[in-house]
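Form 7-S
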Amino acid sequence: MMSAVDSELVEMMSAVFAAHRGQHEPGEAIAELWGQLGELGLVRLTGSERSGGSGAGWAEAVELLRAAAWHGVRIPLAEHDLLACWLLETAGLAVDDARRTACLLDGDGAARGVPWAADSERVVVAWRDGDGYRVADVDTASLSVTPGHNAAGEPRDDISVDVAGLTGTAVSDNVIEQFTLRAALVRAVQVCAVLDRILQMSVAHSTERIQFGRALAKFQAVQNLVSDIAAESALARAATDGALAEALRSDWSSPNLNFLVAVARSCVGHAASVVVRNAHQVHGAIGTTREHRLHEFTMPALCWRADYGSVAYWDEILTEYATAAGAPGLWSLVTATGDAEHSPA
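Output:
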């Protein structure tokens, strides 16, 4: 399991995002917040101290991501610290104070829906080169960038680059595999955080809202909606925490990790459907208004679950694992006592 995080640090993280959100709309004044987080040592929370990072671990990073998501603050902390800068450090490349994101390029040197690319100073790109992969830290100005946004209003940009003009540094397949798993778990953590916030909002609304002379929470139909939100949120969080615990226990080398990440992402994806639908039913018409904050959490939940692999993609991965295991191996697969022999080809 992940180690406990100092409660004062968690409170400080929450206070910073709460104060920012109290003064700005989601997506506003990012540069100002980035500077404040940098002064607090939170921009590169998990970076090594020798490269200018704070030397913290995933436990602290998870709390930081949860705090930002809980308060509806949209900022590329995960993309910068846990993905881009980690990839640079792992490849033995220098890391400076530039704001970064990261992506895998296809065979044509392109990537679609890259988070925060147009808003970043540099993009860490990885691409297949012969039998291996290469990584390069590229100035965003030298890329062809087509700005875009997801349904939650967050930057999701298309980029392209002539990889023939990049030197790059060779990295192993394991590094790229870990990059994809890290990215997938990052989004699972963020979705779980907004699902928990949606649950809190739904409980508060159903308790405070009076309808036909009594609180909404007194109606059995509403109770069923809220209890399903709670159950789905708990399942998603348990699956995500389990995958994270195994990743950290094994230093991202467990033969079961790909399966556990697929379980987490599948649970998170399906949970988001139930939670978002039920929450809007609980809130009624007010929950669909721009003025109400519910959409700040329901829209990211639906968008984030599709980043780094759609729900259908992760469901297909689970199907392949189950098929490969067969009836005799299913129990060991779902109890995580199996081994890599049951991995899909």
